[in-house]
Amino acid sequence: MKGQRIRVWGASQHNLKNRDLEIPLYRLVGIAGVSGSGKSSLAFATLYAEGQRRYVETFSTYARQFLERLDRPQVISIESIPPAIAIDRKDPVRTSRSTVGTMTELSDLLKLLYARRSTLRCDGCGQPVEPDYPEKVWQRLQGDDMWRGRRVIISFPSSSDKVVALRAAGFDRFWDGQRVVD
Question: Phi/psi at 20 (nearest 5 deg)?
Fold first, then answer.
């Protein structure tokens, strides 16, 4: 994957005048320039259109009839272009805190991406935080000699208004701080 690039030759869509360029794959790339320099023509009318067009071509004829068809961009050749998606902005939110991320709802998608691809770590020790389940805790306790032969209660904080939901989830006892109550 290292060194792979999208290669574009002879892009002449809208404001672009026979442009050749290479764009690294698997990197976040920004397109910048003065007004009218062809940023949108490159990003949407060329790269997005070709990526989406090629992706749609992989579907059956039946499925294609329900999808938006994009015209082939005016370009000599595009190599190594992956399937593409574009996120359109919704109705503009007119506040001083609006950003491109909030206007396109991209920030919501980025939060989801970071939540799925990141590793939560403990602020205190830096170790990865992993979910604990009663079975996992029990296995850990069984492997610790300190608890051998002793009675152990595995509990978690809750409130009395959740008793019905806990009972429906299969719990039949609770710890009141002093003893186990049925």
Answer: -115, 135
